[in-house]
Amino acid sequence: MKDFFKFNKPKDSYEFQIKEPELPIAPKYDKNENISNDLNKNIEIIKDFFHFPTSNDFKMRNFEIKINGKEYNSIIIFYDGLADSSSINTGIIKPLIKNISFESKSILKTENKENLKNIILGNMLIQSQISLVENFSKLIDSVNHGECALLVESLDIAIVCDVKKIPDRSVDKSQNEMTIKGVSESFVETLRTNTALIRKYVKDENLIFETLEIGKKGKTKCAICYISDITNESIISEVKRRIDSVDIDYLIDSGELEQFIEDKTYTLNPLILSTERPDKVASSLIEGRVAIMVEGSPNVLIVPAVFSDFTHSPEDTYIRHPYALLLRFFRVPAVFLSIFLPGLYIAITTFHQEMIPTDLLFSIAGTREKVPFPMLVELLIMETAFEIIREASIRTPAPVGPTLGIVGTLILGQAIVSANIVSPILVIIVALTGISTFAIANFSLNYSFRIARFFYILLGGSFGFFGISLGLFIHLCLLSSTTSFGVPYLTPLSPIRKGFLKDDIFISPLWKQEKRPIFLKPKLMDKEPKISRKWVKGG
């Protein structure tokens, strides 16, 4: 007990100290070195590159291939967990270790590496996806991506077989972009599964997937998707240019890639559309846009993207036109309420009381009689508390989430009003603002509105309507000068385009949406003929 309260003076130095990083040791071998026909040398290089046996998930199996009585030493290498062990055993190793005879085959009249390669590829391996690599750089990349490599004595090449079995999840419902009617499935973390989901909706031979690699060390696969006879070539070239210019070591998610290729970093509004719905990607490709997919990410990037794209929901095309028009009608005011409502409230109650009816003004003044804080401080307290509760509800484990919502909205809201910290009408304003943000279809745009709302609160509380008008003017000027892959961000409002009210602000019936967006300048402008409902008399 005596030692518990004893004060020990900190030492000037400890045995364990973080040392200065040492310079990296030069690699023993060069990755660009070609594969040798000496198997023992190849094994030595492979062990060095893959840190065998220190890295115990790397597997290397030695065996012999017998062809016409002659034995050839061989090895097969792969990562356990990334490659399918059963496919390797049944489709590669088992056919190779059988004793087979080719006396009748003219292919064995001259013994050379070409004959040996042709025998293995044409008569022994039953794998459908096989490629040949000549240097260790490509060999290492293939193994890192879940493939296995076969090296045979006397052959100066490696036979790479696609036996990937990377852990993934099955296609499930969309969690962040839910709709009542329409497609429910979402992308997963496997690139090839995602490409198949897109081809499921766009059954077109002109649908092209170009694969690129990002990252000097990780070499994450990235797929650029577009329809060749629709998408403008300049957009495709710009996307390739930006992705090729990304110089990093590792890339984990499409969200990281988005930050590297977006036009402006410090603008509040998102400039690249991110979605987890394959039907949304399919619709964008049909319009003439480009989709970017990253291996390991369930979110696909769509470029170019304009402001109106972030306010639309996939459900708008799946329900009848009057219903979609009603939803669009309510969604537009929700956008303005989520940004301006708190700022307008504080501006009116602080600087422009003459705009409020007398009875309502007396009611507001009566509720604030015992509140000790100014209106601006009161509003900032409530907005901050609401944002904390919203962020906490996202990070809270699922079983506890509803409880947190009840505590935050009912108990805490009632307690803060009873304690005369805020007025009841302010709780209504903040709650209405929060509900309006949930009507916004895109979560990235939601974030930008939440940040902008605080600026308008400060401007409204400091300068009234003048401050909000000035802030709105600057905000619109910044958005007007912003582009997304060469396309003005406020298109088709600025610069104004003919017929923008038809499909962007409001929505017209599906059979009247005959043209693709003109600002994309697609190769094929017509999406459907003028008379698409041919059963109707007169068109």
A few lines on this structure:
This protein is an alpha+beta fold. The chain has helices at residues 39-49, 85-97, 113-124, 136-144, 191-201, 233-244, 254-261, 278-287, 307-311, 321-351, 358-367, 375-395, 401-418, 424-437, 443-463, 465-480, 500-505, and strands spanning 58-67, 70-79, 130-133, 148-152, 158-161, 207-214, 220-227, 273-275, 290-294, 300-303, 483-484, 487-488. It folds into 3 domains: 39-161, no CATH class; 191-305, no CATH class; 321-488, no CATH class.
Describe this structure in words.
This protein is α+β, with helices and mostly antiparallel strands and 539 residues long. The chain folds into three domains: 39-161, no CATH class; 191-305, no CATH class; 321-488, no CATH class. It is 42% helix and 12% strand. The chain has 17 helices and twelve strands. It has helices at 39-49, 85-97, 113-124, 136-144, 191-201, 233-244, 254-261, 278-287, 307-311, 321-351, 358-367, 375-395, 401-418, 424-437, 443-463, 465-480, 500-505; strands spanning 58-67, 70-79, 130-133, 148-152, 158-161, 207-214, 220-227, 273-275, 290-294, 300-303, 483-484, 487-488. A hairpin with a 5-residue loop joins strand 6 and strand 7. Helix 12 runs antiparallel to helix 13 (401-418). The longest helix is centred in the middle third of the chain and has 31 residues, at 321-351. The model is unreliable at 101-110 (pLDDT under 50).
